[in-house]
Amino acid sequence: MTSSNNSRNDKGQAEPSESSSYPNVRIRSNDLVFIDRRPHLAQQKQLGKWLLIDADTREAKLEAQSNLVRLLGDGRLSVRSRPRKHEPLSPLSEMAMDPLFESEAKRKHAYVMHVLEHPDGFRISKPWVKKMIPEVAQRIDDKNPPCPGSVLNWVSRHEAYFNEIGLAAYVPRHDCKGSRGSKLHPEQEKALEKAVARYMKAGTMKDAYLEAEAHIREFNASAEGRRACKTIDSAHLDRSGKLACPSLPTAYRRKREVSPFALDASRQGWNVARRKYQGYQTRSLPERPYAELEADATPLDILVVDKSGACLGRPYLIAFIDRATRMVVGYSITLDEL
């Protein structure tokens, strides 16, 4: 008898599990995920679920990998990834866009738009770009024109980031340079993942850290762990020659990398996280008075009592405010419940 990897829902239908042979939806951070033609921005994956932000309403939701596979099979999901040459950029500090950087970004943007909007069409050709550079340099009075390779690199960054961060796409990102990958052993990474997963359920980080210590102890006690410790870099070993457990401060830093929304949704519930991180949109003020009015109501801190002594309740104050001038154009007091 063979066992099945598929679970069944309430209707008795088979559902693909995470360990089944169903294909996974390839999603990376900051990819655009279209569900029923509605765009969502992929944030990060936690415990097998993707945190997606609705691009229109800014509402967040968690989608399991199995549900995404089902939507893909039904033709209701599509993914638009960034160019693989450029990884997603983190938010740019406001201090980075000082007047000097902004002036340099406008200079690069002038060259990019000239070659992209050329009447003959854009060509990925250094000889062709080289002929275009003198025209832009003369128009913007650039004393030090760039080489064709630099212009093509700016075009690539323009296509990858300009629609999202504007001129900041051309600003040098020195904070993204260097090797920023993990320096821990894969088993140490697994230990931290277990600690964070335990913390997301309940308890303190010190309690969750016990999960990491238990994982490292099991690894060191196994035959595979004893063989691996003979070839592991000494930087990952303790004084006894066994794989060292990541420190508690390292576990705290890994916990801070988890999305606050996903953390609160797991520990306190979806409704609490949604109320806490709900986004709001504002509208511009109207151009003239009385174009738009706002209505607001609040119960007054008084009780109305009639001549017989019967309590009629708290009255409500309803006010109408002009959005352009912020003047009160009318109000009303009523005992009717709103």
Would you mind describing this structure in some detail?
- The protein is α+β, with helices and mostly antiparallel strands.
- The protein contains ten helices and twelve strands.
- The protein has helices at residues 65-73, 99-116, 126-140, 148-165, 186-201, 205-221, 223-228, 248-256, 260-267, 270-276; strands spanning 7-8, 14-15, 32-35, 38-46, 49-54, 60-64, 77-80, 293-299, 304-305, 311-313, 316-322, 328-334.
- The strands form four sheets. It has a five-stranded antiparallel β-sheet with strand order 6-5-4-3-7, with helices on one face.
- β11 (316-322) and β12 form a beta hairpin.
- α2 (99-116) crosses α4 (148-165).
- The longest helix is centred in the N-terminal third of the chain and has 18 residues, at 99-116.
- The chain is flat.
- It starts with 6 loop residues before the first strand and ends with a strand.
- The model is unreliable at 1-22 (pLDDT under 50).
